[in-house]
Amino acid sequence: MSAYNEPKRLAEFLLKQCLERGVHLHHPAKAIFVGKDMRNELSSVRVADLTSSTETDIPCTRIIITAGAWSALVFKALFRTSDITLPIASLAGHSLVIKSPRWVEAMEEKGLHSVYTTSSAGHSPEILAWKGGRLFLGGVNSAEIPLPALATQSKVLGPSVEELKQIAAELLASETGHTDYEIVRQSLCFRPVTPWGLPIIAGIPDEHLGIAMGTRPGEEGGVFVAAGHGPWGISMSLGTGKVLAELVQGREPSADISHLGLRQ
Prior knowledge:
Oligomer: single chain
Largest sheet: 5 strands, antiparallel
CATH superfamily of the largest domain: FAD/NAD(P)-binding domain
Mean pLDDT: 92
Number of helices: 4
Helix content: 10-25%
Low-confidence stretches: none
Radius of gyration: 21 Å
Order of helices and strands: HEEEEHEEEEHEEEH
């Protein structure tokens, strides 16, 4: 699916749809505190505007944490006395978006394709075809690159980009050996991963929310998390959203997520 849906375009489309349906977006902002009522049940979340000193308390009885590789940090910031840590770490990955001068529109009539291979350096490069003659090249990953405080603070690392360029030269050179493609974009993103390789799509039991903190019973309350999809977050995003919405609303999920619970 990633070969057909460019992540940036899909994300922009979904954001546009949400705003058109009346969703209020706080950005750039940070959730910094959760409030509770006289029954010690979740009743609000405090959001700080990062461009000013303004803080806003938003009434709520349910919270959904879908902050990717930052999900564990968000959970700990909001539920500071919790006895658990979300087992979600970061896998950093560099990528290039390349445009080939040999592309013609007629090629797309035969479909868009993906190529998965290996490199002498031990990586597993992958090339995904996007519409308009653009190619996504990724697969140079590292679990050692520190997670920045904000996604916008990530900076590509020269050696990893050079390695990708070398891979591109080996795989995408013309018949004469010339590397006449254009590099449109180079990126570094941080993907959320779990130790067991499966994402978490689940509610967090009240007993793990911290001292004197609970939520309303049934579909009226709860704290939920969806993260840990690794490099396949875009592919599984829409399905995750569907079953997460069903979970939050107290309905039977339309897919079996019994193996995607919280583990410690």
